[in-house]
Amino acid sequence: MGPRSAATAAAPAATRGSVAFGGSRLLRIPALPRCRCRRAAAAAATPLAFRENEVKPDLNVGVKEQAEAFRIGQAQRLTRRGWAVLDKKGTLTPWSHTPGELGPRQVDIRVTHNGLCHTDLHMRDDDWGLSKFPFIPGHEVVGEVVAVGESVDSMRPGDRVGVGWIADSCRRCLACLRGDENVCEKGYTGLIVEGNHGGFQEICRVRSDFVYSIPDGLGSASAAPLLCAGVTVYAPLRRHLTRPGARVGVLGVGGLGHLALQFANKMGGDVTALDISPDKEEESRQLGAHSFRTWGSATGAEEGLQGHFDVILNCASANIPTGQLLSLLKNDGTLVQVGIPGGGATMSVPLQDLVFGQKKVAGTIVGGRADMQEMLDFAGVHGVRPLVELMPLSEVNEGMKRVAEGKARYRVVLISDWQ
């Protein structure tokens, strides 16, 4: 089945005696009776007696607070349904797990939308040797907070939030202290690495430090791809596009490149799109490119572009010779390698051009907490929006096939459709 648009129906309101989890009624409990604990305690000369193993009520807590504690306790114990990869290169199948107690710095998020990233396919196939099976993919996650740990004060149930690729870091090294957890000296923890579970499930549990507020003007389907693809191109542009009018080349107008065009334009760059497909020219210009060149060995794309760019973002998945790209840079220009070609690709750098032109080659990997929240706010204000295809989560395998075959234009977003 092909992709289709989907709308999320308004969740029914909770009825009397029900507990509402983020707008959806997940369980029903009897209405709690009026508490007479204080009256009984005042009348009794000795402490109240309780049966062995019975939980004693807190006499200083009212009925509403006890109901909230009960609700959170139930949220901690519920079995979570998800779509999991059970073994290497396997098809995603329905699978359940129980997460256990909610940690003091953790939050539970009822997932509504997931961006589908090519990294999910790499993790499914264990291309990087980081996967531990079974696990639930998904690292562009948007949803609603339904429970928070006792030490979380930055968010509350009902907040609309997002989670990206990074789920934790040491939080103590110099990189982490300045908000660059993506280059943590101890190494960061990926949301779906080493058996951790991501967003292709009903309720996703994550550390609150790496949960981000979604601006009101940014829809959930638009926000999801920004949580990985968006920050991946925003962060290097933020570092290397240092002045208005700087000439920026974006090579590869796909899931990453179509967002890079928008961000570079809104940051004031003079933007050129370079892509192997000439049919992407009109769309590239609509997204923010001021000019377009068809890229390829026989197209003459480089003609007139020698020494032209201040910055080039290589978002292509193909392994393009570095010398070819360096020749397009001005002296003191920067080539940023964003895409990671498969097959153990390597880079060969012509040293004479690098040294005498004082040119730079840089890598980039997603972004830290500071870049992430700034990027979301920037996108909300400046109207940066991914072009997405909407599919139900139950069709995740068909979505992965579209991404693998390069048919998605440009990001697939999966909408939760649990029954």
UniProtKB/TrEMBL annotation:
EC number: 1.1.1.2
Keywords per UniProt: Metal-binding, NADP, Oxidoreductase, Zinc
Enzyme class, spelled out: oxidoreductase
Family: Belongs to the zinc-containing alcohol dehydrogenase family.
CDD domains in the record: CAD1
Enoyl reductase (ER) domain residues: 90-414
Origin: domain of life: Eukaryota
InterPro entries, sorted: ADH-like_C, ADH-like_N, ADH_Zn_CS, CAD-like, ER, GroES-like_sf, NAD(P)-bd_dom_sf
Gene that encodes the chain: PLEST002950
Name of the protein described by the UniProt record: alcohol dehydrogenase (NADP(+))
Needed co-factor(s): Zn(2+)
Organism, as annotated: Pleodorina starrii
Pfam families reported for this sequence: ADH_N, ADH_zinc_N
One annotated GO molecular function: zinc ion binding
